């Protein structure tokens, strides 16, 4: 069976406001992993890795300081950052923040 023989992925739609889990709420099952991140002002996610993933972080509202390895990034409402999940990751909210994370499997 080739890729073109695979049935199409069904279209799914979710509202971020309807998700209640904090700080992480999974929007959809399966790949790519899509997560709503909600952090209160001053809240931090401890340093961790996603070694087999590439990540895209879109801050929908608020302001994060994101530690990536030895570097720190100031990520504000409307900003989008793409990075390698193999490095140590630790976001900290500088204000109440809602962000969308997409974790895609590494292609290599």
Automatic annotation (TrEMBL):
InterPro entries: Cupin_2, RmlC-like_jellyroll, RmlC_Cupin_sf. Residues 38-93 form the Cupin type-2 domain. This is Cupin. Gene3D superfamilies: Jelly Rolls.
């Amino acid at each position: 069976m080739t890729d073109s023989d695979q049935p199409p992925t069904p279209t799914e739609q979710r509202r971020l406001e309807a998700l209640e889990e904090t700080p992480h709420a999974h929007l959809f099952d399966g790949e790519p992993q899509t997560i709503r991140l909600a952090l209160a002002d001053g809240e931090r996610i401890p340093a961790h890795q996603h070694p087999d993933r590439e990540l895209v972080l879109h801050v929908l509202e608020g302001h994060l300081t994101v530690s990536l390895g030895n570097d720190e990034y100031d990520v504000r409402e409307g900003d989008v950052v793409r990075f390698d999940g193999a490095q140590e990751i630790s976001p900290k909210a500088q204000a109440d923040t809602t962000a969308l994370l997409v974790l895609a499997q590494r292609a290599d």
